[in-house]
Amino acid sequence: MRYGARRVILFGSLAHMTSPEMALAERIRDEIVELDRVVARAAAAWEHGKVSADQDYYLDAVALNLHGFYSGVEFVCLTEHL
Questions:
Q1: Which alpha helices (DSSP H) does the chain contain, by range?
Q2: CA 79 – CA 63 distance, rounded (Å)
Q3: What is the separation of C-alpha 71 from the centre of its chain, rounded to a whole number of angstroms?
Q4: What is the chain's Cα-based Rg?
Q5: Please, are residues 33 and 16 in contact by the beta-carbon 8 Å criterion?
Q6: How many Cβ atoms are within 10 Å of 56's Cβ, its own excluded?
Q7: What is the pLDDT of residues 12-61, one digit of tens each?
Q8: Cα-flanking dihedrals φ and ψ of residue 29, to 5°?
Q9: Distance (Å, rounded) from C-alpha 28 to C-alpha 26?
C-alpha cells in the first residue's frame, strides 16, 4: 500500500480537522515515515551482522534501532498528544 493511501485510511478527510488536529496528524505521518526508515536500518544491520566478523556491533545497531522503533510507536500511541 502506498503511503498516500495509508494516510487517507489513518486520517480520513482533512476537511473536518481543526488546526491542532492537522498538526498532530502531520507529526504522526512524519513519525510513520521515520518508523519505516528505522525498520529498514534494523533489517540491514541484521543482514550485515549475519555475515560479519563484528556481529556484536551489528547486533548493537539492531538493538538501538529497535529501541528507536519502540519510541516511535510509543509516540504515536500516547494519548497525551491527542
A1: 3-11, 19-51, 55-77
A2: 26
A3: 9
A4: 16
A5: no
A6: 10
A7: 555 666 788 888 888 889 999 999 999 999 999 999 999 988 889 999 99
A8: -60, -45
A9: 5
Q: Label residue 1 by pLDDT band (50, 70, 90).
A: very low
What's the CA angle centered on 23, arms 22 and 24, to 5 degrees?
90
| Cell numbers given for 69 | 522503533
78: helix, coil or strand? Answer: coil
Mean pLDDT within 62-79: 88
**CA torsion through residues 64, 80, 8, 14, sign:** negative
Task: Answer yes or no: is pLDDT of 7 > 70.
Answer: no
